[in-house]
Amino acid sequence: PESLTRWNMQALAWTGDLKTGYVQTSPVTQKELMLFPNAPRFFRENDTIYFSAKLSSLSEKPLSVTAQVRFFDAFTMQEIALLTAGEAATKTVSLAAGGNSALSWKLYIPEGLQAVTYRITAGAPVEEGRHTSDGEENTLPALTNRTLVTESLPLPMRGTQPRQFEFTKLLKADSPTLRHHAYTIEFTSHPVWYAVQALPYIMEYPYECAEQVFSRYYANAIAAHIADSHPDIKRVFDLWRNYQPAALQSNLAKNEELKSLLLEETPWVQDARNEAERKQRIALLFDLHRMRDEQAAAGRKLLQAQTPDGGFAWFRGGPDDRYITQHIVAGAGQLQKMNIPTGDINALLNKAIRYMDDRLAEDFNEIKKQADKTPQDKKEKPLAYLTIHYLYARSFFTDAYPVPEKARKAFAYFTTQAAAQWTKYNNCLKGMLALALHRYNDIGTARLILQSLSETALHSDETGMYWRNERDWWWYHAPIETQALLIEAFDEIARDPAAIADMQTWLLKQKQMQDWKTTKATAEAIYALLKSPAAPSSPAKDRKLTSTSRLATDGNYQITAGDSLITPSSVEAGTGYFKTSWYGHEIKPDKGRITIIPPPGNRETGLPLAWGAAYWQYFERLDKITPAATGVQINKQLYRKTHSPAGDILTEITPERPLKTGDKVTVRIEIRADRDMEYVHLKDQRAAAFEPVNVLSGYRWQDGLGYYESTRDAATNFFIACLPKGTYVFEYELFATQTGEFSNGITSLQCMYAPEFTTHSEGIRISVVSD
């Protein structure tokens, strides 16, 4: 460490005949002039900040030091002007012998930057012919003070007739505060490729809950199987990997911590700016050795996260969670259905299935106790949602892991009740019951359920076959997972390729950019798309991963956006996929008029002939974005915390009473929820001026509520498995370390597996002055 200038060094030497020698000394490592920048963890757009540094002289003579700071765009390394008017980049300071001095430069962070590299140097002549200097270069992310909004327009194609599409929101974009980010049109002659494209999203997701660790395992297992089993696809990835080896080798790419922060706070910086970068990024993720290493690492994390009784907590340190445990078991069953081995987690599965069986037996014993008091309860009590989920997850392993003796009566009772009660549940639970009963040989009831689902389905040429979804916070109302589950049911039970193709059309329509909104939904969608539709005569056990031909189809479609004819330099070998993007000022409203002309003579049936989508991303101020009407309110306040003989005093921060550097700040977040919620993510952004007091992540308990708290560079996250209706207050502490004018961001709340239910607080601006 630079602040440590004296070292204790010891050396021991010996010979073959045991002669020894020992020396101890205290060397001093120091420079006559040392520079210590005090950089924040990140910049944020529209902030004014004093970039400070300390000069320290160890010379025995006074020094005249010249210090200079320069700033560069980290992506292009072009110099940029961040200094405010009248602020000189070069300053001269007189240092007394052995003295210290502080420097600062006033900066304004403009919009449009994504990462900034600063280079600060200081030098001074010591004596004639000799010069001393010091310096530092580092890269900081520049976070936006706006919200990124994504609008999408699906481009489904059937038959051989041209089609015209209008992106209405882009055509009518006239907000004065709107700033275009990117407009993308992507197209593939075979939409199964979308499932492969979505795998990197769950490979890279940053949080460490059990569900997302398993999702990484799931994605790497599928990707490794594709790369290993299909030589044509592997050759495409190898080609991409070598397309431009230096395309991503910038300072940004080399800095893993910076990449992690940017991906978490501003995920759009990872959007590729050209085809070479996009191809190389996917290819790197599909490296066979990397995927196997990542899969093994995720498997080890899962084994560590498993509780002694076989269950899984949502986050380590919390109580075991039946739903998360059953979700992991069902996902492992899906991998085995696709003939993907899960040998490295079979020990985990054995314990998890035993845990599930034990909980089912406990449920049954509780019902028997209640039945002794009120005999009608045993017959009339509906099945719990977790019980239905158990029957579905357990159905993957009936042969490999037979139901143990102690749980057989419970298993028989609940399967009988499921066959009698299936009409009482929504589509997601009906699909689970249909698949479970079919695998338990109650084929008649399973077909009745599918007949009912067919009669209530909606049909459209654009959106395919789908159902009206009940929007709610609960996992069994999630629309993507429900559609994926029903595709699985129609595939395995009805063997209806036409219906499956129509249902997959709706699933593809929901895709936005690289994912289906959540890791869990993305994993379910990938499973629904990568399974080949079963032939009507094929046995149920013969479900395999999609064949090479389903991933390797080329197409030659003529597409125009406004007056621009899209002519990709090449269509991806083996996929038929291409993408064209426009950025910033290149985006014009007329590009919202899209015409697609298919190649003549292409009369393929089954899945949609081809599928594409247009995505428009823009930044808008938070006060222009209308939050969802979720019935949840968030209020955030900042207080200065001071000590007094009577105890701690909290004083609200106002423009008349700004913060000073060194002040301790208490952040108070108040949540008012009008309904029960599950798997809630509360994210509180903070200003670049603040440093958190508590940097250790872990499980916490407060007023009967358990949650996992995770401190990150630009925000503090709270993950709450179950948030009952009521009012809750979260508090944590920060230190003010930088001076200037800062945006403190917003506090947002979102159900991680129902992201359409979200809300946020208003933005806060703060001032910090020097003490």
Describe this structure in words.
This protein has 771 residues and is of the alpha+beta class. The protein is built from 19 helices and 35 strands. Strands 3, 5, 9, 24, 32 and 35 form a 6-stranded mixed β-sheet that branches. Strands 4, 6, 7, 8, 10 and 11 form a 6-stranded mixed β-sheet that branches. Helix 10 packs across helix 13 (405-421). The chain is globular, with a radius of gyration of 30 Å. The two termini are 27 Å apart. The model is unreliable at 244-254, 272-276, 534-554 and 602-608 (pLDDT under 50).
Shape: globular
* Structural class assignment: alpha+beta
Tally of contiguous helical segments: 19
Main sheet record? 6 strands, mixed
* Number of E-type strands: 35
Q: What is the strand content?
A: 25-35%
| Helical fraction | 25-40%
Low-pLDDT residue spans: 244-254, 272-276, 534-554, 602-608
How far is it from the N-terminal to the C-terminal residue, by CA? 27 Å
Gyration radius over CA: 30 Å
Task: Give the rounded overall mean pLDDT.
Answer: 80
Can you give me a brief rundown of this structure?
This protein has 771 residues and is an alpha+beta fold. The chain has 19 helices and 35 strands.
Question: Top keywords for this entry?
Answer:
31% helix; 19 helices; alpha+beta; 771 residues; globular; six-stranded mixed sheet
Write the layout of secondary structure elements.
Layout: E1 9-14, E2 20-25, E3 33-38, E4 43-44, E5 48-57, E6 63-73, E7 79-80, E8 90-95, E9 100-108, E10 115-127, E11 130-143, E12 147-157, E13 163-166, H1 168-171, E14 179-188, H2 193-204, H3 210-229, H4 231-241, H5 251-254, H6 256-265, H7 275-285, H8 288-305, H9 322-337, H10 346-373, H11 376-380, H12 385-394, H13 405-421, H14 427-439, H15 443-456, E15 458-460, E16 464-466, H16 479-494, H17 497-509, H18 519-530, H19 548-551, E17 558-561, E18 564-566, E19 577-583, E20 593-597, E21 610-620, E22 632-644, E23 647-652, E24 659-660, E25 664-673, E26 677-685, E27 690-692, E28 698-702, E29 705-711, E30 715-723, E31 726-736, E32 740-743, E33 747-751, E34 754-760, E35 765-769
Parallel strand pairs: 4-11, 24-35
Antiparallel strand pairs: 1-2, 3-5, 5-9, 5-32, 6-7, 6-8, 6-10, 10-11, 12-21, 13-20, 14-19, 14-21, 15-16, 17-18, 17-20, 22-23, 22-25, 25-31, 26-30, 26-33, 27-31, 28-29, 29-30, 32-35, 33-34
